[in-house]
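Design job #97: recover the sequence.
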């Protein structure tokens, strides 16, 4: 089993979201369920997050709870297989041809554009 210091050195992803209703910022660690905190400024929120992460890890170690390893981009190949209706396939092929790019590039563009809308 890893020590607290070993876990603290791992690159856990931190998500910072501005809270327009209450003010300040909310910070969480997606790989550490329930590890969430906030702060009035970005700096205080990040400092509070580091304290919350340490407290979360300490409690998990004391209680014998399995601590997940951080998610990594190396876990993803950047490829997946997708089945779609033939009519959509034709439409995507036609649109990409009009744009002068490959269908793969066109689909990546559409996915990135849509993902940016929902990431806000």
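Job complete. Output follows.
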């Amino acid at each position: 089993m890893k020590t607290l210091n070993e876990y603290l050195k791992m690159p856990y992803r931190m998500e910072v979201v501005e809270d327009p209703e209450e003010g300040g910022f909310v910070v969480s660690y997606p790989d550490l369920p329930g590890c969430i905190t906030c702060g009035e400024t970005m700096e205080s929120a990040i400092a509070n997050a580091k304290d919350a992460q340490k407290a979360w890890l300490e409690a998990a170690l004391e209680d014998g709870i399995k601590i997940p390893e951080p998610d990594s981009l190396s876990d993803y190949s950047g490829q997946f297989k997708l089945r779609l209706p033939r009519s959509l396939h034709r439409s995507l092929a036609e649109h990409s041809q009009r744009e002068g790019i490959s269908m793969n590039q066109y689909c990546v563009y559409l996915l990135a554009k849509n993902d940016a809308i929902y990431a806000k």
